[in-house]
């Protein structure tokens, strides 16, 4: 007999638990002690729900319907069923309400039964409101609803039903109830006062439902930009590019340190809405306060610390190349790519001047949007695959970034890019051809065979007189191989105008790709037949940096596409290659050749393990 009772009790307990959710101890036990008020309140609601017909309907339906996969701990009871239940209840009550004159002649027993049924409905509605709209979050920590408006739309329906029921049970005109509900009961009318108090409770519930259910209005991301750094890149490239894209001076704030060049500060102050001067440790405060997309255009040695602060704050940002000249910082960026999840790695060549070549290698749609569509002979994306196949394997790559005196540093405005006086400081320029190589050859590093290092003597003498320091080399040429591909790159400043050239040529077994970085286009030739041109759309993007800024603004407003479209990982590889190449130059003690006009072009020094021991050490 005892076992039968125990078995019956277990079955009944399971049924009760499926009808109503028993509160977990964590909802009323705090600090190891039972809190009496939550204990009583939550268990009272638990017992009250056992008396709700809706809960028994749910229990029955759950036992009948197939339990399809769900994220809930029990079979789903779709919100549509609850809505149909309350709609049916509302229809029945409304029918009685409009027919109450005809029901006056009904037997007394039926009237009493109707009053009891109405009382059960009122009780059920209030239990539903109390549990689902107020207390459920305390008792079911991981519940879900079917759609955001599930409770928002059901609540007015059950309140209307409740008002009709109250009018029937209290035998009170509905208009009188509405007067009581808005807080105007007659003096001494206890029922009216009760209705007014209940209305205040429902008003609180309504506010809670709106706050918890309404998805809200999504605000636009900030449209203004903060630029950290007030040098020539900011003044001559970033700000004009943003303005060419339709941004106004009021959209731009520039923050810099007191040591910034006064000429550039004066120029930028006229171009940007605000020019803020801050101590080095406070330059990020504006970005952190306004949470605006930020462009880091400061000296390389502070890039890493600034991008980490922005990444931690979740603010979209762009960082000028090179991201970092310190290998250990780049290792951190590799091992923690989330630091650049909201960051965009700027690259003036591969993402603007050489964008047609980047598109030829990686034809992403966002790149295509910046390319010309009306230039004669333009190659469409659908043709690229077949042209690549016809070109065959790559045989050689030649890259020249040779800039005359007019494009080379003057004075002290960008002196930090030329100090200290070692080859590594030349990374500001040398990173561009290496990054182009990284696109073309992939992740395999070039095995360099020989190189030439030079320094423009007039500039070197000028800086020695100004600051008594030696500048970095201004000429670097290297030759090597990447697998079966011959690679030659030349990077130079202060070259004669007749030598100035910014181009690349990729020779294939059946043709070539010629890249003109100044014209921002590539020409494709297969079997001596020109197959067309891919070019940046100069009508839309005529200003320098405009393509680069367009890509960044797209990212800052919309986030990444399915793939990153900046050069983050590739830039890390290119910078590592530069460090390795500089290490090799130092080990082989390659001399720095001074030149007055024409840089050394034929003084190749071997980078092999058997490099000559008689050459002079690399000047510092």
TrEMBL record:
Keyword Ligase: no
SUPFAM superfamilies: NAD(P)-binding Rossmann-fold domains
Record keywords: Membrane, Transmembrane, Transmembrane helix
Transmembrane segments: 82-100, 112-139, 151-170, 190-211
UniProt protein name: Oxidoreductase family, NAD-binding Rossmann fold
């Amino acid at each position: 007999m005892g076992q039968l009772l125990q078995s019956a009790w277990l079955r009944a307990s399971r049924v009760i638990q499926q009808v109503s959710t028993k509160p977990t101890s964590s909802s009323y036990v705090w600090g190891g002690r039972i809190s009496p008020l939550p204990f009583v309140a939550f268990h009272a609601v638990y017992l009250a729900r056992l008396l709700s017909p809706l809960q028994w309907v749910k229990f029955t339906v759950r036992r009948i319907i197939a339990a399809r996969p769900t994220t809930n701990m029990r079979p789903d009871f779709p919100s549509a069923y609850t809505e149909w239940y309350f709609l049916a209840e509302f229809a029945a009550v409304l029918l009685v309400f409009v027919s109450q004159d005809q029901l006056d002649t009904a037997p007394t027993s039926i009237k009493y039964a109707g009053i009891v049924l109405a009382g059960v409905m009122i009780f059920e509605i209030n239990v539903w409101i109390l549990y689902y709209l107020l207390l459920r979050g305390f008792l079911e920590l991981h519940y879900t609803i079917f759609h955001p408006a599930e409770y928002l739309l059901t609540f007015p329906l059950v309140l209307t039903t409740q008002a009709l029921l109250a009018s029937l049970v209290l035998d009170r005109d509905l208009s009188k109830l509405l007067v009581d509900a808005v807080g105007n009961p007659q003096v001494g009318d206890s029922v009216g006062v009760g209705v007014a108090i209940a209305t205040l409770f429902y008003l609180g519930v309504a506010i809670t439902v709106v706050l918890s259910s309404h998805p809200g209005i999504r605000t636009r991301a900030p449209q203004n930009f903060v630029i950290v750094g007030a040098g020539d890149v900011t003044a001559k490239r970033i700000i004009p590019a943003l303005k060419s894209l339709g941004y106004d001076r009021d959209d731009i704030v520039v923050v810099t340190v007191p040591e910034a060049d006064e000429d550039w500060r004066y120029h930028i102050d006229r171009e940007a809405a605000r020019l803020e001067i801050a101590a080095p440790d406070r330059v990020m405060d504006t970005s952190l306060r306004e949470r605006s997309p930020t462009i880091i255009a400061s000296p390389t040695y502070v890039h890493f610390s600034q991008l980490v602060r922005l990444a931690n704050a979740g603010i979209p940002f762009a960082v000028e190349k090179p991201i970092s000249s310190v290998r250990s910082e780049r290792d951190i960026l590799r091992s923690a790519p989330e630091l650049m999840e909201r960051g965009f790695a700027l690259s003036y060549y591969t993402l603007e001047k050489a964008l047609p070549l980047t598109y030829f290698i990686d034809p992403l749609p966002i790149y295509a949007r910046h390319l010309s569509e009306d230039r004669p002979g333009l190659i469409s994306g659908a043709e690229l695959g077949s042209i690549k196949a016809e070109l065959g394997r790559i045989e050689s790559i030649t890259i020249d970034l040779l800039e005359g005196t007019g494009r080379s540093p003057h004075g002290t405005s960008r002196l930090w890019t030329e100090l200290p006086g070692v080859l590594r400081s030349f990374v500001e320029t040398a990173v561009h051809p290496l990054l182009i190589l990284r696109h073309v050859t992939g992740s395999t590093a070039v095995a360099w065979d020989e190189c030439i290092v030079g320094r423009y003597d007039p500039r070197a003498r000028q800086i020695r007189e100004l600051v008594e320091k030696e500048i970095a080399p201004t000429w670097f040429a290297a030759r090597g191989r990447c697998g079966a591909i011959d690679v030659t790159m030349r990077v130079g400043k202060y070259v004669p105008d007749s030598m100035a050239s910014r181009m690349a040529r990729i020779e294939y077994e059946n043709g070539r790709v010629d890249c003109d970085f100044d014209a921002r286009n590539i020409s494709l030739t297969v079997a001596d037949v020109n197959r067309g041109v891919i070019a940046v759309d100069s009508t839309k993007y005529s200003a320098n940096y405009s393509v680069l800024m367009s890509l960044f603004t797209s990212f800052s407003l919309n986030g990444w596409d399915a793939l990153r479209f900046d050069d983050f990982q590739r830039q890390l590889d290119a910078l590592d290659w530069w460090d390795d190449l500089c290490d090799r130059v130092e080990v082989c003690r390659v001399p720095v050749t001074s030149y007055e006009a024409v840089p050394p072009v034929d003084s190749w020094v071997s980078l092999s393990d058997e490099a000559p021991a008689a050459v002079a050490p690399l000047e510092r």
